[in-house]
Every structure is written in structure tokens, then in C-alpha cells.
Amino acid sequence: MAWHLAQFNIGRLRAPTDDPLLAEFMANLDRVNALAEATPGFVWRLQTEDGNATAIRPFDDGLMAVNLSVWESLESLAEYVYRSAHTGFLRRRGEWFERLHDAHMVLWWVPAGTLPSVEDAMARLARLRRDGPNPDAFTFRRPFPQPGGVAITADERNVCPA
What we know:
Radius of gyration: 15 Å
Strand content: 15-25%
Oligomer: single chain
Strand order of the largest sheet: 2-3-1-4
Mean pLDDT: 91
CATH architecture: 2-Layer Sandwich
Number of helices: 6
Distance between the termini: 32 Å
CATH topology: Alpha-Beta Plaits
């Protein structure tokens, strides 16, 4: 069976999306999303008719934003996150998002062709927070191989810059 990598991350915005504090972030969403879609290994991302996921609010807190996507591999996601124009925005996240003290990103394997739900993603994040990295909910720093795959090597564990 072929597998893809699901990715879910959350962030608490410093202000509502129409606030001037978030103007630059909001103005660049389409560009950053297009970059993701053009990255080799990209499969799918959660979005509404607006072309992004900023209107999706699965948490009781209206300032909690979510991002959910699927990639062909850990390496293709890492290429986008850490070695593309996305990296500049990642470095600036503190301008737009509050610092979260719990895990805010989780990865897991899904059968190719499967699109994860927000509810499943939230459960995976909760499991990571509760149990730490495991084959069903892990991180870039502590990845797990796809089901039936070979163990992750030290080089593959270092896809995330320290």
C-alpha cells in the first residue's frame, strides 16, 4: 500500500484576520499557498471557497487558525517548510501568532488517496500532546516511518533545522 504524510498545525492569531496587525500575513496567504501547491510532493490542502483555511474554526477560540495538508513524503513537506520562500514567513510567525506552549504541529501517515478530516487531525494533535511522538502522531524532530516502512535514519530525522 502507498502512503502519504498528513500535516496539521494550529496557531492562535494575535488579532482577527481583518485587523491591520495581520494585513501582511493575510496579503501573502495566496502566494504562500500557491508555493505549497507548486512544491514537488504536494498532494492536497484544506481550504474553503476563499482558497485558504482561515474561516475554518474547529476550536472554541475564534482566534485559533488551522492548517491541514497532505504530502507525498516527509522530505517534500520539509523542503517546502524549511527550504523555500515559506521559511521567511515561518521565521516571522511571532508577528502574527501567539507563542503556544503545547505541541502545535503533528504529522501522521495516511493511505494514498485519503484526505484527513479536521476532527482526525485534532485527535492526532491531542494524542501527540498526551503521549509524545509515536507512529500515529509524530513531529519533524521525531519522525516515524510509514506503516511497513524501514526505520528512519539519523539523516532523515534531521529534516528539521535545529
